[in-house]
Amino acid sequence: MTEQSPHPTESELRYRDYLEAVTSLFDTLADQDEDDDEPLSEDELDEAEARVRTLFAQHRGTQRAVVGESVAVLTIWQEAQAWLDQQELESVRSPDTIAAPTYDATAPQLTELGYAAQLEIDGDVDTTVGGDGDTAEITVRLTAVGDCPARLLVQITSSDGVLRSAPVNQFGRAHVKAVPLPAADRSLRVDIRRLSA
Amino acid sequence: MNDHSGESGDSTDGECSGPAEYFESALGLDLRTMIHTIEREARAVSSGDRSGAVDLAQEVWVNLLAKLESGGLPEQVEHPRAWLRTLVRNLAIDGYRKAHTRKRGELPDVPFDDMPPGWEPESKLDGPESLAVQADMSERLRASIAALPTDVRDVVNLILEGRLHREISEILGIPVGTSKTRLRTAAKLLRDDLAPGTH
Fold this sequence. Notes:
The structure holds 2 protein chains of 2 kinds. Chain A has helices at residues 10-31, 42-62, 80-85, and strands spanning 66-76, 92-93, 97-99, 103-106, 118-126, 133-141, 152-158, 163-167, 173-182, 188-196.
């Protein structure tokens, strides 16, 4: 026990705050009538569980992960050269980017991981980069069909061997940025891999 | 109404593997029972403030996840529901304490004028330094509790272990009302202990 000073130190003030907190809790618990406490209703419990599961899902998203086995490999945009040459046919033009037509694909292996087999791939091609080709932002869209879809990573490799990747988020989207599209060969390899903690 | 009193290891179908399964396994309680225990205790210590209780319960789960990240729960938790209540109570104490400190208007040691634009005082209550401060405060509290009369001290220690009054009543063989009275007495004695001129 320390002697009380008329000018308490910061440490003393903190201890007083702490003790006041502890004794406030004691008072609250002493006034509590446990037998009269209403149990939580099922609806309240459901709401609480939803909050907890959301927190768990967010936690999963922040965990470090190891890139695991490949789930699906697709090669897209073999036809990109011709398509880019005829941009006005199906694309929507903006001053500097071109939205590529949606590429629909099927990967049956995804069904075992909590997703629908069908997936969509979109690309926004940036034509302002200059040099020997363009770059694109590729969006892969999956549809979660299970309660616990697996964590996935999308890796995209350009024809000149540049690798870009992005995780599939809780909405089933992966946005892979700055994917090179060399003029000589604009095809891309899309590799969807499983992530494990 | 589900039974949330039992300590079973059953899981709900379709649960994700991960934190839920880990906690169920580590504590021997199903997730709903854990949620029920935490929510009820959060309500109990929040004195009718439902929104505050929700925040507190959420903070408990964040704390549990942090424990999981830093190596997991203690190897064996003997009384899992009491252990969860202790978590709730400790975080409630922390919340009260921070509120008191804010009310007191804790200021930085350096004059505000010397700080760059946009600077805000850093919390002194988090981080390694505050852990040492916390350890010191806990030590002082333990010493103060040790000085309480035995019958009062026993109730306080059981409360700090997360016990309910009806459990304390069974453990100590005293009426529930006596357990509450002794807890009030403890609060008063501990406050008196700090009153100026008592030492």
